[in-house]
Amino acid sequence: MTQARSASFVGNPVVVPTASDRPVLKERGQREVFCGLTGIVWLHRKIQDAFFLIIGSRTCAHLMQSAAGVMIFAEPRFGTAIIDERDLAGLADANEELDRVVERLLSRRRDIKMLFLVGSCPSEVIKLDLSRAAERLSREYAPDVRVLNYSGSGIETTFTEGEDACLEALVPDLPAAADDAPANLLVVGTLADIVEDQFRRLFAAAGIDQVDFFPPRRARELPEIGNHTRVILAQPFLTATVRALESRGASLVPAPIPLGIEGTDAWLRAAAGAMGADLNQLEAAIAPARKRSEAAVARIRPELEGKRVFFMPDSQLEIPLARFLAREMGVHLIEVGTPYLNRRLMAEELALLPDVQLSEGQDVERQLDRVEAANPDLTICGMGLANPLEARGMPTKWSIEFVFTPIQGFDQAGDLAALFARPLGRRGRLAFGGEEAVACN
Amino acid sequence: MQLTVWTYEAPPHVGAMRVATAMKGVHYVLHAPQGDTYADLLFTMIARQKTRPPVTYTTFQARDLGGDTADLFQQAVSDAYERFAPEAMLVGASCTAELIQDDPGGLAEGLALPVPVVPLELPAYQKKENWGAGETFYQIVRRLADRDIRPSPREGRAPRCNILGPCAMGFRHRDDVTEITRLLGLMGIEINLVAPEGASPRDIVSIGNADFNVVLYPEIAQSAAKWLEREFNQPMTTTVPIGHGATTDFLEEVAGLAKTVVPLSLRSEAASRMPWYSTSVDSHYLTGKRVFIFGDGTHVLAAERIAREEMGFDVVGIGTYSRELAKPIRKAAAALGIEPLISDDYLEVEAAIQECQPELVLGTQMERHIAKRLGIGCAVISAPVHVQDFPARYSPVMGFEGANVLFDTLVHPLVMGLEEHLLGMFREDFEFNDTAQPSHLAAHSPAAHMPEPSAISVGAPSNDDGPAWDNDAEKELKKIPFFVRGKARRNTEMFAVEHAITTITVETLYDAKAHYSR
Predict the structure, then answer these.
(1) What separation in angstroms does the CA of B179 have from each of A79, A250, B19, B175?
(2) How many angstroms separate the CA of residue A80 from the nearest CA in chain B?
(3) pLDDT digits (tens, 9 = 90+) for B267-288
(4) A385 and B45 in contact by Cβ < 8 A?
(5) Which residues, in sequence order, are bridge partners of residue B92?
(6) pLDDT greater than 70 at residue A356
(7) Looking at residue B332, what is its pLDDT?
């Protein structure tokens, strides 16, 4: 994936605004991030008739139940086929074993219409060919169940790149649009259902009816794609998916991510522009939502204004979130870390982001030294790091919350601001400081 | 390959992390791919620990696999040594690193660090978390214990013991240690050390300074304790003090090893409130409640005895995911005349509970999911742990206070005495519907409608070819409280099949009830 990524730059020269030429601190060391398997936590709820079967180890299974907000209180539509020593020693034929597991699974869950075989670190290292397995199983279970594969392994993917890999795997299944089909807008990246509905209403009011969302809510509702498809990103981490969509003829609409009022406004305008919609009609359609979101955000701004915020790298949402905080909430950014910086997809974001230390990759120990030295008012970080910082009196916010909380669009801009404000507000309410902490372990 | 929805145990390297995190002055360097750092959150989030686990991961990625991952590992070990200055280090591999065979032990040895380095071989594709914790603790003790340190002669001093087994991320270990330390103190016994929890490598060096070992959690401490028994002539306790009776037996065993006597106050039935609470008339409704018990070996064995001897329940199902403790569980099951379930397959456990139709499940957080779906009460008595298993209050399950805690825990999910009668008497009361939970649980009970067990079966027999229910019989069945309705349905259908009845009427329902009545 890494190699292919660089290739995409060669193939698609883009003019980057000077703002994105800014220096980036690149670090190598311990990376305290989730692997791409974690994407299943929200994807399995988004696509309601899909099941995600990880081919991996007990570690993968354990990660999934631990990362899923401690545990999910409904039977999940994901599971793990745990590789054991018999599979490794060649005593059992891995493909036969996989067939047996899939058979048990599908006979138990007849509601499943799409099955993803998800590769993991161990399955990659032993070079288990899941694409052939997926083809074979797809033939076997056609037409009831479609079987696809992708890798969510930690050696290939970081956290949200799991969604990227999943959507990339889905792209070849998208039906081709006719050559003379009207232009359609494809919104790419998982959004909460309620946010999709809001966007759909806004687009409709602006006269844009040909709108599809990807991933779809049901596996069989795949949108058409072709030369007239305009792709706009709802999430920033979709490098490979964009490449796959472009190879099917679609074109990417450059836009910031629809976070905050400014981001949402620019995003809607970019979409409308690409679809040839009447911008006056768009303005009329979005003005009421923008107005009320301004009021909502303004109410929270005093709680965040002037606060110093540090982003640890996690989801690739860091840059758009930081841009929102800096420009709309008056936050002072200390460092904005991202696990991977795609300068092309982030060009519009980087153009808006004020001057700040950007970092890519991670050496967690050194980065925590910087957090310590800066003593931020708020640190956005992964789940494993949060409580140790809280215990030292440094308020935190879990970065994973931004991935599966409805935060995009006008009507969520206030909620987004509130997510950042809550840890600070809580400190203000409590009589405790939480600072002398470390002793009581 | 095994299909897993939920897993009861983490991989073995997480067991090693639990030991490293419990101890002081130890650092663990784990050769592991990016993503395996998720395990930190078990400690910082679930157990709310205030510091990160003392673990450094190499977090290699695909691009590193082409290069020198061995180099990466060595660098990580030197960096960790420099930054954290531990008294001892542990080195090992997680599942993926095991496949690339870099030999962490040999690589770390090559660095010739000035502190003991304990290499861990934890086969990730065969073994699991508890084994990993036990093996790690054993290797640490073996490596660090000074064989020349032995207790002085017993004359003129108090007896002395080690408390072995308490660990990070353990089910109520934090409070169990407090309770057991208190009881041992009342017996006049000194504690040489508690390990792994709170012990430093230097403490482990003088582990031989105790007369005997108290083994609280055999899953974690048994192999180390057996080695100490062999090499240091330190005898060990074998009774796990969970429940009133087991605590009493444990104290007698300790007294034997310590060559002392149990004080009268600790031999009385009044040592905990549980004997009286359970004897009191308010508890009569507990008699014969059908319970299904599942969890780790230690807690299941203890719960079985408590359920039978101290609560007056009927144990209708028993099982464990701890293969290491399968033997004693089989023995307990044989004494009950039932078939034990030795499995870590959540789906199998689910099917077994459905089959048993218990009135109460004593299990783990996983069984809580199952019980919730089936509309059965459930008390959590064992790991795997959840954030709720680290209560803010003092809440041991060991010792006499633990017996009190368990009494409350086991009673809490049940529909209480007279309330149960009212539910049975007035089925048609509009507030006594199937979604009405015991009144004392209403504040946090799921509001969702509980489907009837047989309606959501996982491969349970459908009655496609079985006898049909006529309308009146179906209505009558609904008058039976939901927590026993599934059982009544199954019994009636079984009775109908045996008697070649094709249509079940109200009469068939009562014939079956009489047939199966105890």
Answers:
(1) 39, 67, 21, 6
(2) 5
(3) 999 999 999 999 999 899 899 9
(4) no
(5) B30
(6) yes
(7) 96
Q: Of B413 and A281, which is predicted with more confidence?
A: A281
How confident is the prediction for chain B on average, in pLDDT?
90
**Considering only alpha carbons, which residue of chain B is nearest residue A65?**
B6
Q: Token match 């009469």: residue?
A: B507
Catalytic residue among B71, B79, B146, B282: B282
Tell me the C-alpha distance between A50 and A109, whole Å: 10
Q: Which element (helix H / strand E) includes B222?
A: helix B218-232
- Token pair belonging to B235: 């005898």
Q: A34 and B35: CB-CB below 8 Å?
A: yes
Tokens of B248: 């009493």
pLDDT at position B446 is 41
Nearest 5°: CA angle at B197, between B193 and B200? 65
Q: Active-site residue B282, yes or no?
A: yes
Spatial CB neighbours of B500, under 8 Å, sequence gap ≥ 6 = none
* Backbone dihedral angles phi then psi of residue B2, each to the nearest 5 degrees: -125, 130
Query: What stretches of A144-231 show up as alpha helix (H) in DSSP?
Result: 161-170, 193-205
Q: What is the model's pLDDT at position A71?
A: 53
Chain B 375-434, CB below 8 Å of chain A: which residues?
A: 386-387
With an 8 Å Cβ cutoff, are A66 and B65 in contact?
no
pLDDT of the residue at A20: 53
* pLDDT attached to residue A76: 80
Rounded Cα distance between A350 and A314, Å, is: 18
- Residues of B within 8 A of A125 (CB-CB) are 65, 96, 99-100
Name chain A contacts of B14, Cβ cutoff 8 Å: 59, 62
Q: What is the pLDDT of residues A133-177, one digit of tens each?
A: 999 999 999 999 999 999 999 999 999 999 999 999 999 999 999
Cβ-Cβ contacts under 8 Å, A38 against chain B: 35, 38
Which chain B residues have a beta carbon less than 8 Å from that of A384? 37-41, 44-45, 52
**What ipTM was estimated for this complex?**
0.91
